[in-house]
Design brief:
The complex is a heterodimer of chains A (256) and B (199).
Chain A: E1 3-16, E2 20-27, E3 31-37, E4 56-62, E5 68-77, H1 79-84, H2 87-103, H3 111-126, H4 131-145, E6 166-168, E7 173-175, H5 189-200, H6 203-207, H7 211-228
Parallel strand pairs in A: 3-5
Antiparallel strand pairs in A: 1-2, 1-4, 2-3, 4-5, 6-7
Chain B: H1 4-14, H2 21-33, H3 36-52, E1 54-55, E2 62-63, H4 69-72, E3 77-84, H5 87-96, E4 101-105, H6 123-129, E5 137-140, H7 146-159, E6 165-168, H8 184-192, E7 195-196
Parallel strand pairs in B: 3-4, 3-5, 5-6
Antiparallel strand pairs in B: 1-2, 6-7
Classes of the chains: A alpha+beta (256), B alpha/beta (199).
Bound molecules: zinc ion (ZN) (2 copies).
One zinc ion is lined by residues 56, 58-59, 61, 67-68, 70-71 of chain B.
């Protein structure tokens, strides 16, 4: 049986039969593929946690009639495991992985998406930037690679040089007064500058941004993604955008 | 495709977890050829399980009354709650004989890609069980995989203000698997060696 080897990022898993899983991965050379990992749900599985979402593996498979079967998986980076220990980063991870799944086709090489995804996972695991900003940067850049690059400065419709005041998700971003359509909004300029910085990976500007602009940027990015991906992302409503603030429990046991 | 009722049976069986079209067909033909009394026992068992079995109002485990066998047992230690994903995990931990406290069944793990956040699980019910002040330790025994780890991380964070002893099963449990597949010895050791979580 023909075999192959590729570096792969695990996007998601589905239970199959008794103790197997179907693993959807984005492979560096082959693009998105679905492979079967036999016995992976048993706690003594030789694959261990290497085939969990967010992990990067050196994968060996043999080709089957429908699905290929994993014969070996060596860990390259266990980002998924590191990210799962930080709940806020984990919710961003879920949306990153779901987006990568949605923007790629099975067996169509997508090296740029692979490299972008790898970078996003490393950033989430390393906590180098705020998790919510990493998510927005990933979403904007993944859409740009997918052919839906937004504009945050010049008019997205006619190219009229910016800065433009109005923004319209369905028009592709910033719009000039003559291209402006009903339903356009006028975000804060600093928010659009932040999103522009995230799109090109200018982290000095992004890291220095203020909470209110990040919040507005989250909303614009989410709207942009939901518009361009036909069915919305299931994970997006579950993303924890704000940093966690510890609240005291309701003191039901006490009387004053 | 087969005659109406036979195909209906195959379709229904095919809805069950882990049963593909071929298995559904095999089971359907097995039932067609089986003894009438055998099939009747299966029908009765199916009807009774839906009729008589419900979920414990306290912990979410399978119960035949308002409370499950464990919550209703006064000899169980009310100071410790072991949090698991599914009722079958309760069975796995009970088999080890290591735990004398009570359980809390979440009904799954947090999995945003499947549309499951904390609100879709029995998290609020867990928090309300802490109000009495009796509980001193929470053992997080979610599956040793990514969703289970993230769920444990979430719970540890939410539980932190309560000032309880929050522990996670020791990582002698190989990560990546489902808790239900762990053998008693491994699971028992993981229980003994549980570690404090610093959320
Ligand atoms: Zn224009
Ligand atoms: Zn109970």
């Amino acid at each position: 049986m023909p075999t192959y080897r590729d570096q792969a990022i695990v996007l998601r898993t589905h239970k199959l039969a008794e103790a197997d899983r179907i693993i959807t991965v984005l492979a560096r050379e082959r693009g998105k593929i679905r492979v079967v990992a036999k016995g992976v749900r048993r706690t003594k599985s030789r694959f261990g946690a290497r085939l969990e979402p967010g992990m990067i593996v050196d994968l060996q498979c043999y080709e089957g009639r429908n699905l290929d079967t994993v014969t070996q998986a060596e860990s390259i980076a266990s980002y998924g495991d590191q990210i799962a220990r930080d709940y806020r980063a984990y919710t961003s991870l879920a949306t990153v992985l779901e987006t990568a799944d949605r923007l790629t086709e099975e067996r169509a090489p997508a090296l740029q998406q692979y490299l972008l995804l790898q970078g996003a996972l490393a950033a989430l695991a390393g906590c180098t930037h705020d998790a919510s900003l990493v998510l927005d940067a990933y979403l904007l850049r993944a859409l740009a690679i997918g052919g839906y690059a937004p504009s945050f400065f010049d008019c997205a419709q006619c190219g009229d040089p910016g800065p433009q005041l109005a923004f319209n998700v369905s028009s592709g971003g910033s719009v000039c007064p003559s291209c402006r359509r009903p339903g356009s909004v006028a975000p804060n300029r600093a928010t659009l500058d932040l999103l522009g910085a995230l799109l090109v990976g200018d982290w000095d500007i992004a890291d220095a941004s203020l909470p209110q602009h990040r919040r507005e940027g989250n909303g614009i990015t989410a709207a942009y993604v939901q518009w361009h991906l036909e069915r919305g992302l299931r994970s997006l409503p579950h993303v924890e955008r704000e940093p966690h603030v510890e609240k005291l429990p309701l003191a039901t046991g006490f009387t004053t | 495709m087969y005659e109406g009722v036979v195909q209906d049976l195959i379709d229904e069986l095919g809805q069950l977890p882990g049963i593909g079209p071929k298995s559904a067909q095999r089971i359907a033909f097995h039932l067609l050829q089986a003894d009438g009394a055998d099939v009747q026992r299966l029908i009765t068992a199916l009807a009774e399980v839906k009729e008589k079995v419900a979920f414990c109002t306290m912990c979410g485990n399978i119960a035949q009354a308002t409370l499950c066998r464990i919550c209703a047992d006064p000899r169980r230690d009310g100071q410790a709650i072991c949090v698991v994903e599914e009722p079958k995990d309760v069975v796995a931990i009970e088999r080890t004989g290591e735990f004398r406290g009570r359980y809390h069944v979440l009904g799954g793990a947090i999995s945003p890609m499947d549309g499951i956040g904390p609100e879709q699980l029995r998290v609020a019910e867990l928090m309300s069980r802490l109000a009495s002040g009796e509980v001193v330790e929470i053992i997080l025994a979610t599956d040793p995989n990514i969703e289970g780890e993230a769920t444990a991380a979430y719970l540890a964070r939410q539980l932190k203000p309560f000032g309880l002893r929050v522990t996670r099963l020791a990582s002698g449990l190989p990560v990546g698997g489902d808790l239900e597949y762990a053998d008693e010895v491994t699971l028992g050791r993981a229980f003994e060696g549980r570690r404090l979580i610093d959320a």
